[in-house]
Amino acid sequence: MMVDDRYAGGRNQTAPTGRRARLLDRRSFLAGSAAGLGALGLGGCVTSDGVLLAEATKLYGPVPEEKFPIPAVDVSKVNPKYYRRTVRYESKEAPGTIVVDPGNFYVYRIEGDGNATRYGANVGRDGFLWNGDAYVGRKSEWATWTPPREMIKRQPETAKYARGMPGGLDNPLGARTLHLYRNGAYTLYTIYASSDPESIGSGITSGCVGLLSQDMIHLYSRTPVKTKVVVLPA
Fold first, then answer.
1. 3-state DSSP call for residue 234?
2. Whose CA is closest to 211, among 200, 220, 202?
3. Residue 61 and residue 191 in contact, taking contact as beta carbons nearer than 8 Å
4. Which pLDDT does position 11 carry in this prediction?
5. Rounded-to-integer distance, Cα 205 and Cα 123, Å
6. Of 13, 96, 126, 230, which is the most buried if we count CB atoms within 10 A?
7. DSSP one-letter string for 97-157
8. pLDDT reported for residue 170
9. Which segments constitute the L,D-TPase catalytic domain (predicted)?
10. CB-side exposure of 66: number of CA atoms within 13 Å?
């Protein structure tokens, strides 16, 4: 909550003593209330991370215009620290570069001037983590998902999709996918759209990185092919 600075100057300086006192009392009350709410992390819809729940609900609302309409995210199932936001993030990487931080379950898009857009993510589970440089070799919307042979061996139930699972809300790749390449070859790793809010902030995948669908659409729209991707050690 912010106090209008116009109350501190201009014509209000000439206000009668009684009116000025009321204005000052109101300003003191508002400032005190804001400080109290900030300290408590409460106040109806203020989260512990200082993000308005109402704002998060708007960020992660339904996307009805999609080929397969995307429902709203139940933001109560996402730790507020994983909501999309702009943060200070010093990096030597060029603006537009994607940095994956699996140890902290974040994906950053470098914006320049020491800023980045930060997204909460799910990442590879133990034994499937990797790191190094890659780049976006191709992009796809509502991609067909084909499980790798190694996955079919580990999880025989996926064999029914050996010829591909069509795009849709139940497809593991979701609404948008960034396919990661190295030296001209597809790594089989992706940054994809997840429809499972409870997965954000956990290691559950076979090395891929998932963002909430609304976040992935946001990142995808700003990421051209050939964009550099840096995956940090966990």
1. coil
2. 200
3. no
4. 35
5. 6
6. 230
7. -EEEETTTTEEEEEEETTEEEEEE-BEEPTT----EEEEEEEEEES--B---HHHHHH-GG
8. 93
9. 96-232
10. 20
What is the DSSP secondary structure assignment for residue 188, as one 8-state letter? Answer: E
Whole-angstrom distance, CA of residue 176 vs CA of residue 63: 13
Closest to 53 in 3D by CA, of 79, 31, 75: 75
Whether 230 and 93 have beta carbons less than 8 Å apart is answered as yes
What's phi and psi for 229, nearest 5 deg? Answer: -125, 125
User: Is residue 164 within 8 Å of residue 204, measured between CB atoms?
Assistant: no
- Per the CB < 8 A criterion, the answer to whether 205 and 190 are in contact is no
The pLDDT value recorded for residue 167 is 96
What CA–CA distance (Å, rounded) separates 20 from 84?
A: 41
What pLDDT is attached to residue 8? 32
DSSP per residue over 142-180, as a string? S--B---HHHHHH-GGGGGGTT-B-SSTTSTT-SEEEEE
In angstroms, the CA 205 to CA 128 distance is 8
Q: For the chain, how many residues are written?
A: 234
What is the Cα 87 distance to its own chain's centre? 12
pTM value is 0.77
